[in-house]
Amino acid sequence: MAKEIDKLSDTQLRAWVKAKTPVAKADGGGLTFTLSAAGTAAWVLRYRFGGKARELTLGQYPDVSLKMARQRASEARADIQKGTDVARERQKEKAETAAAKSFAQLAEDYISKVFPNLAPRTQKQRGQHIRGVILPKLGRLPAREITTADVVSFIEAISTKKTGNVIELVFTALSEIFKHGLARHAVTVNPCVGVSITAICGKTEPRRQRLKLTEDELREILPALPGIGSENEWAVKLLLLTCTRIGELTRAEWAHVDFDRAEWFVPDANSKTGKGFTVPLSAPALACFKALQPLALGSRFVLPARQVRRTRNHGGADVHCEQRAINSMLHKLCDKLGDKVRRFTPHDLRSTARSHLSALGVNVIVAERCLNHSLGGLVGVYDQHDYMTERRAALDTWASFLEACEKGLPWKHGNVIPIRTAA
Length: 423
Fold this sequence. Notes:
Blueprint: H1 10-19, E1 23-28, E2 31-35, E3 41-49, E4 52-60, H2 66-81, H3 86-99, H4 103-114, H5 120-138, H6 148-158, H7 164-183, H8 197-201, H9 215-224, H10 230-242, H11 246-250, E5 257-258, E6 263-266, E7 277-280, H12 283-292, H13 308-313, H14 323-337, H15 346-359, H16 364-370, H17 377-382, H18 388-407
Antiparallel strand pairs: 1-2, 2-3, 3-4, 5-6, 6-7
């Protein structure tokens, strides 16, 4: 007896879609109308090949009408009778389409799928390496055709222009794209496997170690800060007093500073970790913010751009100052102080603060939280305390130590010495 076919009607299909209730209804001959819980309606041809149950998706409804679905099912059944596993052939077609992708297409797919799970700073840095360094060289090549020799040649080409550390970061980005391609079956191998940056470029220079400025150096630096200008003076003091990163300070806005509560909130977008946090402000830190307020001339930023050229480049918009402006001032300060202090960067102020916090007897966890470092491990999982009270006490102690250094007075734990504030 022949199987019953053409059992469904357009009226039924529309009613099921309108009801939004998941269904699976057979039209006959293996053709089935399905409606998922998410509301996606599709046509599926169910058949057996080599004794195994198989399925072939024929398209989504209503893009593929009932009449069109029956026609596609009829053509597929004819191919099956000729000995063709139509679902397997569809898989091969998809694989061939994926294989034809250029490396640029694979890289953009990696960016769209993986970047949302990366920290904002990593997204920005890796995006620059992919679009600015990798794609100009490899973007047009079919992803599947890139070989280990191509990777080696690429590394050799950029080694004449980039530092060892940048080359390593670029290579990591390249390898991650190919790992993504393997997972997506867009490539069959990762040509970066087995490639050694050291073998190609030689041993890279070791990363510069973070500096801890000694008490003697702080006693030279702090009194000399007025010589680099008021804005720079208060900015450097804030970096020391709050233990924050320079990017967090240069992007700070007045709306995030609470003078009444003596707190500064660093929003998610400004935090290196991508998670906002609150910094308790000691009296000297609060004084620095107050000193900077009139210098901001109505800008929403605590440290607005100082050069007309920078605002002009942004269409006259209100923009924050560049980190390198403070870097430049610190270089001039070091030149002025000569061999009294070692050359240091804004980030060295964080390592200086962290080291001195330990020397001042601050608990390790509290000191790490003062720098907004992740606690890691089980402590990071289970300890959700923000240590605000403890951090405030630690930063008050740190501030009084800096005050003693600035005034040239001996440091005695427990004594709070007033710091020089704005006139």
